[in-house]
Design goal:
TIM Barrel, alpha/beta, binds beta-D-glucopyranose, about 15% strand, 11 strands, about 425 residues, 17 helices
């Protein structure tokens, strides 16, 4: 039962949601800096120019994580802080910042994990088409090589791209995230390029010995509204889109063409050798799941022929994100991934729930307790689930939702940016002290 003893708790944050200092020390503009300048795109009209000011307060945040008893500090690197133009000249002050974060983690006794990309593309690369332009493959490869050369001596665990499907779905299909592009061509090209880039990034990192390199995938439990043929087929399509497109090509299974006709659009951007190049034996999979969606057949919806039945209509518990609160998804997806490869190490590389400022934190504690129940079950089955990384430490910039949804286990005072542990953090600290899974 060594999995029980080795089960690890950590936390995840992302650069564009926390760092602020958006032009400090030579950083270039990212697509999120540009996107939030038109702040009507953000629900509370906010931006991420200051965010949680992690850039200046990283020591305090790392200290808080350590105080809670967390053992992993996963943060993402802002590409445009390292390469203000996306490629070309390296910004040494950007390198110095992340070295400081890494060194502080190591000194404080918490393991730093790097995410190479959490959605904040340099604006200069977007000006050339961003993920839609195949040239991005070389740019990403070059960027990852720079990260490896500067940080891999000190950082062993790496996550390449965070949630490709959400990044490209929201940013290049629905247009609700940066860079605000829409449409099937933008989506199809960009998703294929992002997946390929990640496969190339894996090889680049693995040139260095002893690195543990994985990816983090978004997973959403999908169920049909009724058992009729049309709803079931629609659910299969959405499941293939949300839970397979960004996973199965790496396993050599290709795009899920049978269930998802839209795969044919993606295949238009596949060049000779690509499907082979996609095959990647990641060292681990990071599973990130928040909600369940129920799906109905809807022939009039282009490409997908499906629509979601809103959680409100279904009268299920809903978080301030409008998502069904569904902690059982963690167990479901861990078991589903174990079926792909029972030996592969798995992580819950993000896990959390958003509440409003006013809500009592008990709901978040209950959420984590339910997740723990699922974790115990999968560990008892002998599945290689290694740990959980909480989403997230301090309330932060929740993309197009602004600052209203509060995912943090630590509260940030709006004007002073002072941090204060919420009940969840206090509960978790106690739990980790007395851990008995
Ligand atoms: C993302 C985070 C985001 C969280 C809640 C995940 O999909 O990786 O950046 O804040 O979900 O929406």
């Amino acid at each position: 039962m060594d999995d029980f003893e080795n089960f690890t708790w950590g936390v995840t944050i992302a650069a564009a949601q926390t760092e602020g200092a958006y032009l400090a020390d030579g950083k270039g503009m990212s697509i999120w800096d540009t996107f939030t300048q038109k702040s009507r795109r953000i629900k509370d009209r906010s931006n991420n120019q200051i965010a949680t000011d992690f850039y200046h307060r990283y020591k305090e945040d790392i200290d808080l994580a350590v105080d809670i008893g967390l053992k992993i500090f996963r943060f993402s690197i802002s590409w445009s802080r390292i390469l203000p133009d996306g490629s070309g000249k390296i910004n040494q002050r950007g390198i110095a910042f992340y070295n400081n974060v890494i060194d502080y983690c190591l000194k404080a006794g918490i393991e730093p994990w790097i995410t190479t990309y959490h959605w904040d593309l340099p604006q200069r690369l977007q000006d050339k088409g961003g993920w839609k332009n195949r040239e991005i493959l070389l740019d990403y490869e070059n960027y990852v090589a720079i990260l490896r050369d500067h940080f891999a001596d000190k950082v062993k665990n790496w996550i390449l791209i965070n949630e490709a499907i959400v990044c490209i779905g929201a940013g290049y299909f629905l247009g609700i995230h940066a860079p605000g592009k829409r449409g099937i061509r933008n989506f199809s090209a960009s998703i294929h390029h992002m997946l390929l880039a990640q496969a190339m990034g894996f090889k680049v990192l693995k040139e260095k010995e002893n690195l543990n390199v994985g990816t983090a995938v978004s997973c959403t439990k999908i169920e049909p509204f009724t058992n009729n043929f049309s709803d079931k087929k629609a659910a299969d399509r959405i499941d293939a889109l949300m839970n397979r497109v960004c996973i199965e090509p790496y396993l050599g299974l290709g795009y899920p063409e049978k269930e998802l006709p839209l795969s044919k659009r993606i295949k238009k951007f596949v060049q000779e050798g690509d499907m082979e190049a996609l095959k990647t034996d990641f060292d681990f999979w990071g599973i990130q799941t928040y909600a369940r969606e129920v799906v109905k057949g809807a022939w009039y919806i282009p490409y997908l022929g499906a629509m979601l039945v809103s959680p409100k209509k279904r009268e299920v518990p809903v978080s301030i994100m409008g998502w069904e609160t569904y902690p059982h998804g963690t167990q479901y997806f861990v078991e589903r991934f174990a079926r792909y490869d029972p030996k592969k190490p798995l992580w819950l590389s993000e896990c959390g729930i958003a509440l409003s400022q006013e809500e009592d934190d008990q709901e978040r504690i209950a959420y984590y307790k339910d997740v723990i129940k699922g974790v115990k079950k999968v560990l008892h089955k002998g599945i290689h689930l290694k740990g959980i990384l909480i989403w997230t430490l301090v309330d932060n910039f929740e993309w197009a939702e602004g600052y209203v949804p509060k995912f943090g286990i630590i509260k940030m005072e709006e004007n002073t940016l002072n941090r204060k542990m919420k009940k969840t953090a206090i509960w978790l600290k106690e739990y980790l002290l007395n851990i008995k899974l």
